[in-house]
Structure formats: structure tokens, C-alpha cells
Design brief:
Layout (H helix, E strand, L loop, with lengths): L13 E2 L4 E5 L4 E7 L2 E6 L1 E7 L5 E16 L3 E6 L3 E6 L4 E6 L8 E4 L5 E5 L2 E5 L5 E5 L6 E4 L6 E12 L8 E14 L5 E6 L4 E5 L4 E5 L9 E3 L5 E4 L5 E5 L12 E3 L6 E6 L5 E6 L4 E5 L5 E5 L6 E6 L5 E6 L3 E6 L1
Parallel strand pairs: 1-27
Antiparallel strand pairs: 2-30, 3-4, 4-5, 5-6, 6-7, 7-8, 8-9, 10-11, 11-12, 12-13, 14-15, 15-16, 16-17, 17-18, 18-19, 20-21, 21-22, 22-23, 24-25, 25-26, 26-27, 28-29, 29-30
């Protein structure tokens, strides 16, 4: 991989740093979402920080301790905490308690479905509540590492040690297990419902083609993959974990099997967060040194959004129209970019 000077030393790269509106969060941030047009910065503990278009920051208390997981469908953010509670926050800033673990175990994974269903996990148990309020649970062989709903039908992927369990909670059939040795954490379905990919505890991804359970090994990362994002249309999967954005191709029926990934925006820093634009072949990527770039997927052209600093980028999010980019760093520095 070639090396070159970081963007803040390069005169050739286009820059929009002067268009970024700083946001004063003042607390560590773990993830970023949009609720409608309002950016929402999920803190490491207790609060979500809602930001108006004018840049006013409103903290909303959602947990009494650490916030361990979060996800959003654009209408609400659902979060789990070390207080054993599952909580939802909507665009109006209203907080709703969805569930409390009877044993007060940590709620450490959460997933949302388009029909309003929500899934969460505590220990070795995955729970699902349908959009109609019906609740079911499934125990797996080891601690749940990640959850994801399939884009079609009510099907839940439960990642754990040595594989993934695929569960149709509305069917009596025994759940299907996709096996692969090792600890599987974050899990995601491809938007076309043909592939399933997990980020592993080791520096690798593993995937299955769902039609025949054929394996896909995606290795070579120097570090663990902690951020994944599907491109608009689902033809590629952008990932962190290296000193460039690693883009795996999923356009063909074989996905990335037998193919090399594209490597975009290499820097002398580790990619820590990726977020693909919802409508165009563009992505935002953040690095361990605080640099943020926008990158065109087709040719790798780069635009500098934020110069490098001290803390790693911990969250990136686009609004649904793709006209606003929000970002946050681990130390609480944050910003908004209007496009």
C-alpha cells in the first residue's frame, strides 16, 4: 500500500473544512444518527445529545449508566444499557422504556426491523418483540455477539461463538446455524438478502451466501473491523480496520469470492468509522487520528472534511436525503456539514 502525506499537508486535495459547523457535545460520543433532520449523538454514558439545525445541543437522559449499544431507523434510536434497560428515543426527544431485563443483565446488542419489530440480547438470550407487541426469545450456545434483521421477512441473525443462528420467530421450524470457528460479533445482511457477513473478534470478516451456505473469507486486516456500511444499492461493503477503506464487491452472484477488495483513501492512520451515502456512490470515512474524508467510490477522489487532530473518529452519519453529514470524535468534538 502506498504511503503519502496526510491531507492536511497536501495542497492537491479539495477541502470543505470551512463549511463544517462545530457542535459542542462536551462528552465522549460512541455513535451518531439522524432523527429526521436532527442529528443525534449517542454518548458513552447516560445521555443522547440532540442538535438542531442552528447548532443548539439538548442532552436527553436515556440510561442511568453506560450505553452499550444503539441503532436507528431514522424515526427512533433504540439503545441498551448496563442498567438492564432497553430504551427508545424519538425525534421529539421523548424517551420510552421498551423492556427491562428481569435479571438486570446488560443489554449489549440491538436491532430494528422496518415493520417496527425490535430485537435485543442479554447474555446468551436474544429477544424479539414484533411490531404488534408479541415477544419471543431464543437461547443460543454462547454469549450473543451481534444481531441483524434480514431486509425481507421477519428473520433474525444472531451472531455468537462459532457461527450465526438464523431464526424465524414466527415459524415453528428449528433455527438454522451457519458454522464457522471463532467469535462472531457485528453481523449484517446484504440489502438484496443474498449474503450474510460477520465481523469477527480476530481481524477478519466472514460471510455466507445464503442460497447454499457457501463460505466467504475476507482476511488481511491489520486490526478488528468495528464499522461496516453498505453502499447505495448494496453493491459493495465498506469496512474499517485497515489504513484504507476496504470495499468488498457484492454485485455478482458470488459476492467477493475469488475477488480482491478495492482500497480507498489510504492514510498513515487506521480507519475507525465508515458511512456510505444513502443515494450516491460516495462514502464518508473517519480515521484514528481524527481525519475525515468524503470519497467517491467509483474513482477514489477525496474531499477533506476534517483535518487530523488528537482523538479517533467514533461516529459518522448521513441524513436520509444525503444532504447533511454529522460526525463525532471519541473526545466529544463534533460537527455538521451541509452539502
Amino acid at each position: 500500500m502506498k504511503e503519502f502525506d496526510p491531507p492536511d499537508q497536501s495542497a492537491s486535495i479539495a477541502s470543505v473544512t470551512d463549511k463544517v459547523r462545530p457542535v459542542a457535545i462536551g462528552a465522549p460520543v460512541t455513535s451518531v444518527y439522524f432523527l429526521g433532520e436532527r442529528a443525534a449523538f449517542v454518548g458513552a454514558e447516560e445521555n443522547v445529545f440532540l442538535v438542531t439545525g442552528a447548532g443548539e445541543v439538548s442532552p436527553v437522559a436515556v440510561h442511568s449508566g453506560g450505553i452499550l449499544c444503539a441503532t436507528s431507523d431514522g424515526d427512533r434510536i433504540v439503545m441498551g444499557g448496563d442498567d438492564g434497560k432497553l430504551v427508545a428515543l424519538d425525534a421529539n426527544g421523548e424517551v420510552a422504556l421498551l423492556a427491562t431485563d428481569p435479571k438486570r443483565r446488560w443489554i449489549d446488542n440491538v436491532a430494528l426491523h422496518g415493520d417496527g419489530a425490535v430485537a435485543w440480547s442479554a447474555g446468551k438470550t436474544a429477544f424479539i418483540r414484533s411490531g404488534k407487541g408479541e415477544e419471543k426469545s431464543l437461547d443460543v450456545a454462547s454469549t450473543v455477539g451481534g444481531l441483524a434483521f434480514a431486509p425481507k421477512g421477519l428473520r433474525l441473525a444472531v451472531a455468537h461463538y462459532n457461527g450465526v443462528t438464523l431464526w424465524f420467530p414466527n415459524m415453528a421450524a428449528k433455527p438454522e446455524i451457519l458454522e464457522w470457528a471463532g467469535s462472531h460479533l457485528a453481523v449484517t445482511f446484504s440489502p438484496d438478502n443474498k449474503f450474510l457477513v460477520t465481523a469477527m473478534h480476530e481481524p477478519a470478516l466472514h460471510g455466507w451466501r445464503l442460497a447454499d451456505s457457501r463460505h466467504m473469507r475476507m482476511t488481511g486486516y491489520p486490526g478488528r473491523v468495528r464499522s461496516m456500511s453498505w453502499s447505495a444499492g448494496g453493491k459493495a461493503l465498506a469496512t474499517s480496520g485497515a489504513d484504507a477503506v476496504i470495499m468488498w464487491p457484492f454485485a455478482s452472484k458470488d459476492g467477493p469470492m475469488g475477488k480482491e477488495p478495492a482500497m480507498l483513501a489510504p492514510l498513515q492512520a487506521r480507519v475507525s468509522a465508515v458511512a456510505c451515502h444513502p443515494k450516491q456512490d460516495v462514502l464518508a470515512t473517519g480515521y484514528s487520528d481524527g481525519t475525515i474524508l468524503m470519497v467517491r467510490i467509483t474513482d477514489g477522489a477525496e474531499i477533506l472534511v476534517r483535518r487530523r487532530g488528537t482523538a479517533a473518529v467514533s461516529g459518522l452519519a448521513w441524513n436520509a436525503r444525503g444532504t447533511l453529514l454529522a460526525f463525532a470524535l471519541e473526545d466529544g468534538e463534533a460537527g455538521l456539514l451541509d452539502l
